[in-house]
Design goal:
Blueprint: H1 2-22, E1 25-27, E2 36-40, E3 43-45, E4 48-52, E5 59-64, E6 68-69, E7 76-85, E8 102-108, E9 129-135, E10 149-154, E11 157-165, E12 177-184, E13 189-195, E14 206-209, H2 212-216, E15 220-228, E16 235-244, H3 260-280
Antiparallel strand pairs: 1-16, 2-5, 3-4, 4-16, 5-15, 6-15, 7-12, 7-16, 8-9, 8-15, 9-10, 10-11, 12-13, 13-14
Amino acid sequence: MIKTLMRMAAPLAMLAATSASAAVITYTDFSSVAGLTLNGNAAQSGNVLRVTSAVDGQSGSVFSTNTVSLASNASFSTHFQFRFTSPDTGFCDTGTVCGADGLVFVVQTVGNNVGGSGGGIGYAGLPNSVGVEFDTWNNGGGDNNSSNHIGIDLNGNMNSAVLAEVTEADMNSGDIWNVWIDYNSATTLLEARLTRAATRPAGATLSLTQNLAAILGTTNAFVGFTSGTGASHANHDVLSWTFEDRFAPIGGGNNTVPEPGSLLLVGAGLALAGAFRKRKA
């Protein structure tokens, strides 16, 4: 039995170690939020990060407790999954599903804080920052009159530097969305990819050429997520997250995101290794 456990555990534990050495931050789920600071209305809800819940007038953020060193002139790569559920249908600008206001992935150098609620999506007013917003409310011209879009924001300004309509589906549909964001300091190109599929798209959904090191002012940054609700709402949940402190696109070559079962196997390998050590002791 012990030999069987060893044969099963060794390759799985090696896989876990390989994954751990390749990323600064890895959460296959959020049953533990160790290493993160939750601000404002953000909360741990089961195995997910609920950055804001389906209640009006909230603002929340979740950032790494300590800064991450982006020593390669602010280069980074990240992948995460999010889902918006229980959207408010009682107060709509367009259509019948119109929860608000969305989620922002943020790199910022100020501290563990949270910005404005509502259309500020928890990001408004955060200086020395870049945010990639997933916005589900039409706030007029600043949103290009769109209630379902992705945008890149700079220095806490909600008037996106670039913006693209999300046409694949309504982000408030309750589906799981995959996001890949990469910044290459050698080309100063920031790219974001968004899809419900598990395969990294070949082309970017949105891109911007910008010197992020100059915007941040330092390469020691807090990384995480913000969200906000206003006169409408939804649950804004992050389900998993991997972040690397270098330009190293995750799932490159159109590789697929690991299925939940594969992620569970990594944990199983570590558990088996632990069980073997206890038996041996």
